[in-house]
Amino acid sequence: MADSGAPKRIKLNTYDGEICRLITCLPTEILEEIASKVASQSLADLYHLKLTCKEMMSITDKDYVYKHASLDRVPFFRSPEIPQEASFLKRCRLSGNLESLYRKGMEAYLMNYELYEEGLGMVRMAAQNQHKRSMYAFAMVVLLMWRSGRIGNLWTEEFGEALGYLRFLRNHKCVLECRNQVAEFVRRGNMCCFVAQLPIKSLCCNFPCKNTWRLKIGSWFFETEDDDENDPNMCENCRWDHEVEEFSANVLNISVSDLPYLRHP
Fold first, then answer.
1. Residues 170 and 249 in one domain
2. Could you tell me if 19 and 137 lie in one domain?
3. Contacts (Cβ under 8 Å, ≥6 apart) of 185
4. 94 in any annotated domain
5. How many domains does the chain contain in total?
6. Segment among 179-183, 194-198, 258-262 with least mean pLDDT
7. What rounded mean pLDDT belongs to the chain?
8. Rounded CA gap, 196 and 44, in Å?
């Protein structure tokens, strides 16, 4: 009696030929979608898929695949930089990969004064495609510059765009998560935030504000997204004043007690 638990051995050549035959039967659009899904989950699996056959080698080299490639396992920073990795990230960025745009944009904005406008432009491009960390980072940059009196070339359009991003993130209950992720990125890169300064004015012009923002748990510092009270009768500007100050404390390492406009309910 044959051992039912022993796997059948398949000749490698036969197996490869069957895979190639099945692949060539599928439309190019479907193959691109398959490759992009693999890329969004694992770069290692994408590499193995690339080696399957000539058809997949060609498919996996398309911009659409690089645009959707996952960078979760690619470190934020490497020293010294690995040429192959740098080339891969550049290809992702040129293909419109949102995470790659966010990383390169933040690096340029925070570390190179001559490139900060270009860097912010990359972050904004990713934000406009609903990359959540980019939405948060762009919003904080705009509000920080407005509150510090360094609005520069940022116009009303950017200011309204920033508030729209924060409302989107708040409705999706991921403001705190995005704040922590952006702060982690800045810390890992040992970046100097020369473009961000201590806020000198508030978004909310009413002091004391009768409809000030508060937390469900009654404490000024919240630990989960569910603690954030989203009541239309409360002052939205107070909420974002708090967020700017929390971001300043996390990114600029400024003690919360030193922030001049921190409001307590």
1. yes
2. no
3. 76, 103, 106, 133
4. no
5. 2
6. 258-262
7. 78
8. 38
